Amino acid sequence: MSSIDEKLQDVYDEVLRRNPGEAEFHQAVREVLVSLGPVVSKRPEYVDAAVIRRICEPERQIIFRVPWVDDAGRVQINRGFRVQFNSALGPFKGGLRFHPSVYLGIVKFLGFEQIFKNSLTGLPIGGAKGGSDFDPKGHSDAEVMRFCQSFMTELIRDIGEYTDVPAGDIGVGGREIGYLFGQYKRITTRYESGVLTGKGLTWGGSQVRKEATGYGTVFFVSEMLQAAGESFDGKRVVVSGSGNVATYAIEKVHELGGTVVACSDSSGYVVDEDGIDVDILKEVKEVRRGRIADYAELRGGDVRLGQAGSIWDVPCDIALPSATQNELNGADAVTLVKNGVTIVAEGANMPATPEAIAVFDEAGVRFAPGKAANAGGVATSALEMQQNASRDSWTFEHTEERLAEIMRSIHDRCAETADEFGSPGNYVAGANIAGFVRVADAMLALGVI
Ligand code: NDP
Question: Which atom of ligand 1 is closest in space to residue 324's alpha carbon?
Answer without folding.
Answer: 32
